[in-house]
Specification:
Elements: H1 2-19, E1 61-64, E2 69-79, E3 96-97, H2 103-116, E4 122-129, E5 148-150, E6 183-187, E7 192-196, E8 202-210
Parallel strand pairs: 4-8
Antiparallel strand pairs: 1-2, 2-8, 3-8, 4-5, 4-6, 6-7
The chain binds 2-acetamido-2-deoxy-beta-D-glucopyranose and calcium ion (CA).
Length: about 210
Amino acid sequence: MIFCVCVILAFFARVGDFCIPTQQVVTTSSSTTTTTTTTTTTTTTTTTPPPELSCITTDWTLINRGSYSWCIRVYWGYANYLNVDSVCATLHADAVRSGFLNASEIATASSIALAERNYNQRLFVGADRISSCYYQPLNAVCSGTTAFGWTDGVTSGTDGFVWAVGQPDNLLYNSGTGFSQIWATMSTMTALMDDIGDDDAVQGALCGMKADYY
Ligand SMILES: *[C@@H]1O[C@H](CO)[C@@H](O)[C@H](O)[C@H]1NC(C)=O
Ligand SMILES: [Ca+2]
């Protein structure tokens, strides 16, 4: 009996030895791939030039007057005292008869006009006789620099009053006809000004308007 138990125990002992499970260590080698994404943000600073003043279309000529820019263009067409104040608006709603800052501007206006019509023409410009000089001859009080005032709202000074000899003469001022020599004109070939009245008509007008950021 004891023998049998021993045999059995021995048997189990051996089986037990045999059955001790072998621990299998499975080493999983995990490789970690680190992807580094480098985002390079390139900030390109484009220096945008400030917008430049220009004229609305190329048939206007830009004149730099320092603190502002002015555009001029000739209106061609029959003009007299009846339409003198409206012909420029047919070119652009903002356009008015143009004055002159100095002799160089009237020369510029003349060359523009001559490039379009190469013979002498008379054009209304933006200067009207001041009322206190109505019916006054050319004299010390109503002189070439004092008898007229610029009408375009921007031109100032008296350097632009470049008159022909003996002008403004207020022709017929005392003739009793009542012709008021209110309006100033320019001759395109001589680049000189002359005052005319409502008995006369000319070939157009020198128009002006402010330049803008078009
Ligand atoms: C005449 O006016 C123009 C602008 O139209 C200006 O550039 C120029 O310097 C002026 N000339 C003189 C002598 O003042
Ligand atoms: Ca005259």
